[in-house]
Amino acid sequence: MSRVAVLLVALLVLAVSGPAFSQAFDDSAIRPGEAIGPFRLGATYDQVAGVFGRRADGEATEGNLKVYRWNLQGAGHSGTATAPALSVSVNGDNAVEMITTTSTGFATPGGSSVGLSLNAFKEEVRTPYRGYKDSAGVRHLRFDTAGLAVTYDIRGAGMTTVKSIAVFKPAAAMPGPVPAITPGVGIGAARLGMSTDEVIRAIGQAPARRGRAADGRELLIFVLHEKDMFGDNAWVTVYVDRAGAYLITTDAVNHFTAQGNNPGNGILELQAEFGVAFRSEALITPWPWPLMGIWYEQHGIAGFYFPPDGEKRILWIGVYRRG
Prior knowledge:
Blueprint: H1 3-17, E1 30-31, E2 35-36, E3 39-40, H2 45-52, E4 58-62, E5 65-71, E6 85-90, E7 96-101, H3 118-125, E8 130-133, E9 139-143, E10 148-154, E11 160-168, E12 181-182, E13 186-187, E14 190-191, H4 196-203, E15 209-212, E16 218-227, E17 233-241, E18 244-250, H5 267-274, E19 279-283, E20 291-296, E21 301-305, E22 316-320
């Protein structure tokens, strides 16, 4: 049976059963760029209201969109800091542009849902994203090419938890693979042991700045088109001695470790991947302030954070030559 036919049958059932319709939906899947449960992008407000069997419990205006909210009840629905709800953002053509939920009752194909770790969500999606805070101080991550977005909390020692999940029409994907952070090996195309010229060829651009690190060894700073966690252009910084590159760091949020760690994560999430056997030592940076580092000698990877930051977010991740 086609999806259109399924929707028509569902609406017919609703017409008979009325507002007592159960909200333990048969379809609880979050489909990136398409739908949350039985609610699809491109549907009209009346179609969404028909599935619920009632008008929206609340509405608001955000820019040129109307946002309609339904409170969720019944088996399978619970919330985190807020009551479980589902909302749709409707444009001037009466078409749903975004669907958002704060309910734990919906999940992605990989099992990610509201209330679970942001790190697990990023590991599943594994596409570049941009992060920002809105005027209310809410933290957002938006995976534009996947058609997914989340809001999240940062709790003790930087552990992050998803508060809401949204789907929307995805943007066109950027060419090329997602850059990888490989402990003891390299970041993206830049590899430990490369000479200065090899690093420049691998990254494919001239360094924006070239000088000396605090220990007198060569320092190369590359400014990327990708963004850092604050929405500014990210950097890759390469430290080089006679044996080649010995430390490579980045603050680009679209660079990931094997388990989805990237700049912007909490320190506990890095420890969840690499353990608690590390040494703490500051990294003297090209800036007026040092970054505190947690260095994993057995892996050849380090995370760096600004000491006054009580949330202990990892601003930079670096790979380095062991021994």
